[in-house]
Write a structure and sequence with these properties.
Blueprint lengths: L2 H7 L11 H28 L3 H12 L4 E2 H8 L3 H13 L3 E6 L2 E9 L1 H22 L4 H20 L18
Helix pairs in contact: 2-6, 3-6, 4-5
């Protein structure tokens, strides 16, 4: 493989022909995910002067019009409470989000999109969908469905693994002992 081709492939270039298929597959998934994420980040910055983190935050609130507790939002976004607080402060300041008392516990805040925030998010989401269609346009619909199915199976397998499970199957030694 030429140096230019290896540079073009980025993360995937780490894999060698004699590497295990699992290693090559993982690197390819990682490379594709990274490239897609970078393209989306660039478009969000260019078109809306926003970040992927803000977009993801607003997407969660769009799905929960009644709002969410900050701890729920933190869990959904898989980030710390401090990150959610920082994003909330920024989005409150620009008028996209508001804090409201939680009716079931007045010590807790819920956050929800404002009318303006909902309008902004809907515009971003529509363009986001178009960007994704553009990124995947070369892949036939049947292949997309098959890949979606296979990735779903992989995700179920990964989620079913007990915490702390070994990342690789145990191999027997020469005497057949594990």
């Amino acid at each position: 493989m030429s140096v230019d081709a290896r540079t073009e492939l980025g993360l995937e270039a780490r894999a060698q022909r004699d590497d295990h298929l699992d290693t090559r597959m993982w690197l390819r998934l990682l490379a594709c995910s990274t490239e897609i994420e970078q393209a989306i980040r660039q478009q969000l910055r260019k078109r809306f002067d926003t970040t992927l983190s803000r977009f993801d935050y607003m997407a969660q609130l769009q799905r929960h019009p009644q709002g969410m507790r900050m701890s729920e939002l933190s869990a959904c976004l898989m980030v710390t409470g401090g990150n959610v607080t920082g994003l909330t402060d920024q989005l409150v300041q620009d008028g996209s989000v508001e804090r409201v008392e939680d009716p079931s516990d007045r010590r807790v805040w819920r956050v929800r999109l404002t009318r303006d925030g909902r309008r902004r998010f809907e515009q971003m989401a529509a363009e986001h969908e178009g960007w994704l269609r553009g990124l995947f346009q070369a892949t036939p619909a049947a292949d997309k469905r098959a890949l979606f199915q296979l990735l779903g199976q992989l995700r179920q397998h990964l989620q079913a693994m007990p915490p702390g499970a070994p990342a690789s199957p145990r191999r027997s030694n020469a005497k057949g002992l594990s």
